[in-house]
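Backbone shape codes:
===
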Amino acid sequence: MDDPTKDFANDPRVSFDKSKQNWVLEDDNGNELEWDSRSRRFISLVGIDEMKAQQATYSIQGVDESKTPADVIARRQEKKRKDYTSNNTNTENKKQKGPPPKTAVFVTGLPPDVSIDEIAEVFGKCGVLLPNDEGGPKVKLYRDDQGNFKGEALVVYYKEASVSLAIQLLDDTELRYGDGSSIRVSVADFKADTANEQTKQSKHKPLTEDEKRKKQSKFRKLDEKLNDWDSEDESGLADKLPSKVTSRVVVLKHMFSLDELKEDPTLLLDLKEDVREDAEQIGQVTNVVLYDAEPEGVMTVKFSDHIAAQACVLKYEGRFFGGRRVVSYLYDGKESFKSSQTANKYAETTDQDEEQRLNEFGKWLEKDD
């Protein structure tokens, strides 16, 4: 294509403006026009200034207005290619699953003669255990190269929430009450076995439709079992944890004897403080009451939420306190307990009893001095 500017030097109406580095034409009316290389014609300087002002007003950040249409098209096509690649990457990232939920606990310090059924019974108090291929609880006992039990086990739950509850209730406790040993419970970490597990899974053949239906049916049954766990608890705690739990008060029995209180009046305060400190490891405690007129040694612990109350029931049930086996359950709102400080229709203490108690307390103080 010919260069139209090659003859401008011979045209007396046209001059080259060094400040603008462009050709300028003066028409017959004395108006100046500037050469526009894109349209290949002279344009009024007034029009050019207005156009530049308009472009500045409506300019889009990142867009080069000096680019030709061909450049813009090429740039858009390049952007589409980049976006396509980026979208594929995002899609792949979205398809990548996050870390699997941690539904298993690792247990150490188990007695050498422990059985899977015994472990399942204890840990089943904290949630529904995942079944194995044979239908039994998914509990694995670890053995050394000689086949000897190492005192370690893996317990797999159906829900992740059961893991934290199991750690809270069973860590550093006795598997068998009174044997003096304690177990440690922690979240199972499968990082070391991830590669092996993936290799095993890659070797598995695809499930048939019948196998898929059986698997779906199994998980439906687990969901039903989980929903009915409170009311159909197989560990024998159904009477301890009602299906619709709202109570935040836990009743503890056999925590003391009346003779112990009579011998040491300060036991009342010490025992309340000890129980509060122990219960606060489970959740926020709002009140602890010791009923000093109850032959069964009754205490109540009130929590700020009912979940902590349930955990307290599981923690205290069956524990030995001062040689006595503790009984724990959620308060049903119907029972009344006797206390020397509280008068109700069930109270049997009289003013004379209270006066006698105060006199005994005074004598105890004088003896201590």
Summary: Residues 34 and 48 are 8 Å apart (CA to CA). Residues 192-203, 229-245, 343-349 have pLDDT under 50 and may be disordered. The chain has three domains: 4-57, 104-227, 249-356. The longest strand covers residues 149-156.
